[in-house]
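Dear colleagues,

As part of the handover before I leave the project, I'm documenting each prediction I ran so the next person doesn't have to rerun anything. This entry is a single chain, and its sequence is reproduced below.
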Amino acid sequence: MKVEQKEQETIEHENGYDPLDMSNYNLNKLPKKERSKIEKILTIIGAPLAILVFIVINYFAKLDFLHNIDPSTLSEKARAVYDAIGPEAFTATNISMLALFLAAVILWITEAIPNYLTSLILIIGLVLTNVLTEVDAYHQLGHKVMWLNILSFVLASMLVKTGVAKRFALWFILKFGRNASSIFISFIVINLILSAFISATTAKAAILLPIFMVVSAVYGATGGKNKNNFGRNIVLQNLLQINMGAGAFVTGSGANLLAAALISGAIGSDIFFSDWLVVAFPIALSIMIIGFFVGTKFIFPLKANEKKPQIQGGMERLKREYKQMGRIGFEEIRSVVIFVTVLALWTTDKYHGISPTAVAFLGAVVALLPKVGVVKWNEVDIPWHLLLFSAGAYTLGAGFKVTDLPSLSVNAIFDGLGFNSNTPFGILYIILTGTMLFSALIFQSKTMRTLIFIPIAIGVAQKFGYPVLSLAFPVALLIEHVYVLPFNSKPALLLYSTDQYSWADTFKYGFTMMCITWGLFMFLGETWFRLLGYTPNGVFGIF
């Protein structure tokens, strides 16, 4: 065994590369993945296809469901627009909205141009086609969820700059990661705790990546030719956990907050942090635990040698990394106090009525205050390209509101399929949850999926006379399932660059977890959601 360890260590240290050096896993040092042939083809055809679709839809397509609109079925805002501009202009606006939407989706999926540029084109397109006024289009950059994203990056930067997040993750692994199984379980706990404090999934991935990569190396997985099932499990399970952790909290991502805002608008009352937490946290934890057993026992079962460290002294390197951080400093303590206060205010929002965005505002102001705070503006890492992309998604949502396009499309589709008022709730529940879940295989943006499918779920519930929460809330709880393929989310792309697994590996594990989740939501509809009053009669009326 010692000989094998020595050989493994020699192979891994050749060319001066030290797999246990955490600095080797800096984001700037990770290899850039080349596009596959299919991706390159999509990049080439994306722009011409988007232009063609826009022209065909906007000028030539026959869309009867948009030419025969019953104004009584429109939302209050869309009805006001209808009355102001008249039937013909309203139809023309809806057609332009549909054409721009489809063109933008093609550009977003194929990445023919950068996603933020697609958003900018979409925004000005909605203005030039008179779907939105300039004020309505441009002020989406000031949407409260946009502000929450910006301020959350300030708070996350505070935790990264002071080293609190890294210190906690290292301490927990060293304290409880005594063997392979306990290491996997430790990362479940770490991800859940970090998710309460850090709303950016990419930031969490960047913090944890060096730690689990060193742990992977200790267990013989250094990527490339040295892949093994421990490495596949540790990276893919972290990807799942990063996303599920975000799903446990309404502040876990901007998409969650957007979904809560859309649903709140439909039901006329707020969905508070605590409301989301009570429902979503047990679900997120359950999926993480299921993911652990599915990964290590069935998809990538660990061999005997993969359960033991392959590099002697590997965990000692993590201990040295932890010791080098020194004692916890006053800045770290201040950052913890600030964020614990923010989290406490988020958790109790139902009682004090201060919105999550306002709470984040206060926290960010304190964090940036000279002498009092712990981070300077030039130390804050805000990905403006992602925010511009989000601004385009919110502008699209504003276009949907004034046109009512999702509701009109839902009515047309369901009428065409022969659905009527007697359609069982279970059929609608299965269709909507499945569509939301598996749409993550195609759409890159959680915000985009939220803007498309939450209004559809609301529209279906209203059309068939069911409580909005019975369909829209379960659909919203599936937003964060973006872990199957590398292009499905930024963390997925980031972790794929570690070269610890293949496309086949991530699809096999991720798709299996998606199918299990869909089945789990059928069970939850009959039990957990019913107990909490969201699906009063269950899904199928079994119990």
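The longest helix spans residues 273-299. The CA atoms of residues 287 and 520 lie 9 Å apart.

All the best with the project,
I.
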